[in-house]
Amino acid sequence: MSEAANVLPFPTPKPVAEDSASDSEPVAKHAFNAALDTTFERCGGVSNQRAGEYRDSWLPENMITTFLDHTLVAILGTDIAGRITRTEKRLLNAATMVDLKDSRMIGPWKQDTVDDGINYRGAYAEWMERYMHG
Prior knowledge:
single chain, mainly alpha, elongated
């Protein structure tokens, strides 16, 4: 069998208008960027809905971490667990939610799982950046 026979018959991509197109010609958005815009708009809607439902429960001062505190003391001991700040606990919780949402991908397709995962990952990325670099 020839190598050409092993290639799937994908359609030839349509050319995208160059940035140097005249001012009267709109520049077509790349498919990837258009998909991202749609996804981010939907995820922003989900996030705003959740904010109305849950209020600012991710603000470190508002977080209740009784079970996390108990678990950290059991695993790490009082000396280490007692030094973990509320901001660090928020990072741990956010990382856990990212992992949880990713784990749910083994089940059937659910748009909400993907959208929540994007939102948790986005919040985690910002909080980790602030934590690491101020």
